[in-house]
């Protein structure tokens, strides 16, 4: 466990969850109040005071959010969760989205590893791993993609071989976001021959400080070193860190991933709205841009972004309704993913186009907006690639939703 | 979604509506009115007092979608909306519309001037995009920028022009009103007109959903059965991805409509549903035409009828104006950034 100066973030007590009996609008108000009272101005990318948080600051902030009831919302209380409903999860995410807040440094732990462990983990694993994720003692990264298996995970070559209670893992992972800062990697490895394709795959919770693990950062187009290559050279992993049985575990994980694709970062639509409001407010502070956004051309184009966001909200809210009603979500997460990733790129391009026309000297609000939207524009280029590229999502929709024949 | 006390579900209306629409295929407009009324479909949202079912707008959505899907040649949306809009001020007319005794329609474009003369009002002007106006008994027209007037199409001074426009299924007419005298009691207040227009946007989206769904089904069938280069068209990734995009659009329309009739929905959600339906619906019907290749350009394949209908509905609801107004309202509601913190 890394040492964290928890005094970095001093927060008000989490009044909302002290009693745990708030619901509906009262819950929303409590979450909103807490977030607005506690989110430091320096974390807000729409603020002139913005300065990207350091890792210890992010960890402390996310731990504070958890204590306030804003992480692990639907996880069972037995494993550190708040045991709330999916609708409350949606409410909390709407409030998180409404503020320009840094992305989680542990979203893989909270939205991928955690739900998979809940679905396939042993009781001991749930008690060991889940609270550590929520308390930010363990940051996770995802070891799925490989140089020869990007979109096609059936081509995985990283191998896990068992000897008694110990597994040995050999291979290489790539595009592993945040591996340099993580304690654990959710590794997908092959236990059978390559010809088995999707069969013979198993998942492991591998410690990144284990002997034989090497992490090499990769510089991305936004200048950051956020994703990495991870090499496994005869890394020993105990059976107690194997997640689910080979085959069964992966099949269960696929079902979890279906739901996750539809529900992860549920705040996204509301964050896009926060970005749009920021863009417009910055434009209105500048005489040239204020005039432009009042012209019909930009009214129409901004209106199109509003409609995109409303449609995204509709995708998210109806998915929540479906899950609450016990319906299978199937591949519909691919629809939402396809929509938000492309809509965000359209929006980011429009933001750059508008801000490029600002008066000189730049108004401070325009400077803040430019800094934010230039980063968003570049990062949005990754959004149609990660978590299944646009082409993969289209393939899933064609195969599994439309069930189009591929036959001769 | 709002439910009634009897826990009736909007989706339960879809099957009845689809069957009724199919039955209407060879009937005259007046026979269709009686048939649809007998199935309870014209009064879905009208009050019990005028023979309606008094259900929320959500229940009209599957009915209008079924009409779109089955290319119903009847001004169904107008009948549904007028049955409710007239139920208090003119209950007998509302009852006649709900029971299929009378045909009523709405001119969605243009407006007339109104001059008060005692208990009468004299209307002058041009209106258009009035579905099936040639055969209708009553026509609702917009007055200037305030309210609307219900006019008998038998009144002196009314001339219904020949149908124009793309839509072959529900022909739209321009109507000239020259010194048409009506009773002042036939004037609907501004608020009624606004509610009617707002609900119409949801129902247009529903009609487009029905058309788009049918187009995608036709395109899927064609792609699965038509063989080229020794394989079904659907073998090709370009075709698969095109159809997948159409599915994305279709579900976008469906979810946006669901959201627009939710308890917390307002004008923004309704406009968004209509606008999304226009954009995605056009793309889906145009895409279906393309997938059909040369066959798609023939009169006999019904895709063009849906495409015509989608484009007509988009224009009827003034999609372009609605989009600009939505953008204007959104921009107008946001304050300029201060130097410190931009958005809240």
TrEMBL record, chain B:
Q: Where is the Acyl-CoA dehydrogenase/oxidase C-terminal domain?
A: 204-315
- Origin: domain of life: Bacteria
Residue ranges annotated as transmembrane are none
Q: Does the keyword 4Fe-4S apply?
A: no
Please give one Gene Ontology molecular function term for this protein: acyl-CoA dehydrogenase activity
Task: List the keywords (alphabetical).
Answer: FAD, Flavoprotein, Oxidoreductase
Report the Gene3D superfamilies cross-referenced here: Butyryl-CoA Dehydrogenase, subunit A, domain 3
For the keyword Oxidoreductase, the answer is: yes
Per the record, the similarity remark reads: Belongs to the acyl-CoA dehydrogenase family.
- UniProt-recorded name of the protein: Acyl-CoA dehydrogenase/oxidase C-terminal domain-containing protein
Lineage, top ranks: Bacteria, Pseudomonadati, Pseudomonadota, Alphaproteobacteria, Hyphomicrobiales
């Amino acid at each position: 466990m890394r040492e964290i100066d928890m005094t970095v973030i001093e927060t008000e007590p989490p009044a909302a969850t002290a009693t745990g009996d708030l619901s509906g609008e009262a819950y929303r108000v409590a979450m909103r109040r807490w977030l607005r009272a506690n989110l430091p101005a320096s974390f807000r990318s729409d603020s002139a005071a913005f300065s990207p948080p350091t890792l210890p600051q992010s960890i402390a902030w996310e731990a504070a959010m958890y204590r306030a009831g804003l992480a692990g919302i639907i996880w069972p209380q037995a494993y550190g969760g708040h045991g709330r409903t999916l609708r409350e999860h949606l409410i909390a995410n709407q409030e998180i989205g409404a503020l320009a807040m840094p992305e989680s440094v542990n979203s893989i732990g909270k939205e991928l590893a955690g739900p998979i462990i809940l679905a396939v983990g042993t009781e001991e694993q749930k008690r060991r791993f889940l609270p550590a994720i929520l308390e930010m003692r363990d940051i996770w990264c995802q070891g799925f993609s490989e140089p020869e298996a990007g979109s096609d995970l059936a081509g995985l070559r990283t191998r896990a071989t068992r000897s008694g209670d110990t597994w040995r893992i050999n291979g290489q992972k790539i595009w592993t976001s945040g591996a340099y800062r993580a304690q654990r990697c959710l590794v997908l490895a092959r236990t059978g021959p390559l010809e088995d394709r999707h069969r013979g795959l198993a998942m492991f919770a591998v410690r990144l400080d284990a002997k034989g693990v090497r992490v090499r950062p990769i510089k991305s187009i936004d200048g950051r070193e956020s994703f990495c290559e991870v090499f496994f050279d005869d890394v020993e992993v105990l059976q107690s860190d194997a997640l689910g049985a080979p085959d069964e575990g992966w099949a269960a994980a696929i079902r979890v991933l279906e739901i996750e694709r539809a529900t992860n970062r549920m705040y996204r639509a509301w964050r896009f709205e926060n970005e749009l409001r920021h863009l417009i407010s910055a434009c209105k502070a500048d005489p040239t841009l204020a005039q432009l956004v009042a012209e019909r051309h930009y009214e129409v184009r901004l209106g199109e972004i509003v409609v995109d966001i409303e449609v995204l909200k509709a995708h998210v809210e109806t998915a929540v309704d479906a899950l609450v009603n016990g319906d299978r979500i199937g591949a519909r997460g691919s629809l939402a993913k396809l929509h938000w990733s492309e809509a965000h790129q359209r929006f980011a391009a429009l933001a750059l186009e508008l801000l490029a026309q600002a008066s000189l000297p730049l108004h401070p609000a325009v400077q803040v907006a430019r800094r934010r939207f230039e980063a968003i524009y570049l990062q949005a280029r990754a959004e149609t690639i990660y978590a299944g590229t646009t082409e993969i999502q289209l393939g899933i929709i064609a195969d599994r939703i439309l069930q189009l024949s591929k036959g001769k | 979604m709002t439910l009634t006390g009897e826990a009736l579900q909007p989706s339960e209306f879809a099957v009845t509506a689809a069957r009724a629409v199919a039955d209407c295929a060879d009937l005259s407009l007046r026979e269709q009115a009686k048939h649809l009324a007998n199935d309870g479909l014209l009064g879905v949202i009208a009050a019990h007092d005028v023979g309606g079912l008094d259900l929320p707008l959500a229940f009209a959505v599957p009915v209008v979608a079924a009409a779109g899907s089955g290319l119903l040649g009847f001004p169904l949306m107008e009948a549904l909306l007028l049955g409710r809009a007239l139920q208090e001020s003119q209950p007998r007319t509302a009852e006649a519309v709900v029971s299929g005794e009378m045909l009523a329609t709405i001119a969605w474009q243009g407006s007339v001037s109104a001059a008060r003369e005692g208990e009468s009002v004299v209307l002058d002007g041009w209106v258009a995009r009035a579905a099936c106006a040639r055969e209708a008994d009553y026509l609702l027209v917009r007055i200037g920028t305030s309210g609307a007037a219900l006019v008998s199409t038998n009144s002196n001074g009314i001339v219904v022009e020949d149908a124009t426009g793309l839509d072959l299924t529900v022909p739209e007419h321009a109507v000239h009103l020259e010194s048409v005298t009506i009773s002042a009691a036939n004037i609907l207040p501004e608020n009624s007109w606004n509610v009617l227009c707002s609900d119409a946007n949801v129902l247009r989206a529903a009609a487009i959903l029905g058309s788009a769904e049918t187009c995608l089904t036709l395109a899927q069938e064609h792609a699965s059965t038509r063989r080229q280069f020794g394989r079904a068209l659907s073998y090709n990734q370009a075709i698969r991805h095109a159809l997948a995009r159409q599915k994305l659009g279709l579900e976008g329309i469906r979810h946006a409509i669901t959201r627009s009739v939710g308890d917390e929905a307002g004008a923004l959600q309704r406009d968004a549903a209509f606008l999304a339906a226009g954009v995605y619906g056009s793309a889906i019907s145009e895409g279906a035409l393309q997938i059909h290749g040369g066959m798609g350009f023939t009169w006999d394949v019904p895709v063009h009828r849906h495409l015509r209908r989608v484009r007509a509905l988009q224009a009827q609801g003034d999609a372009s104006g609605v989009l600009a107004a939505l953008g204007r309202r959104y921009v107008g509601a946001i304050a300029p950034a201060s130097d410190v913190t931009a958005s809240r």
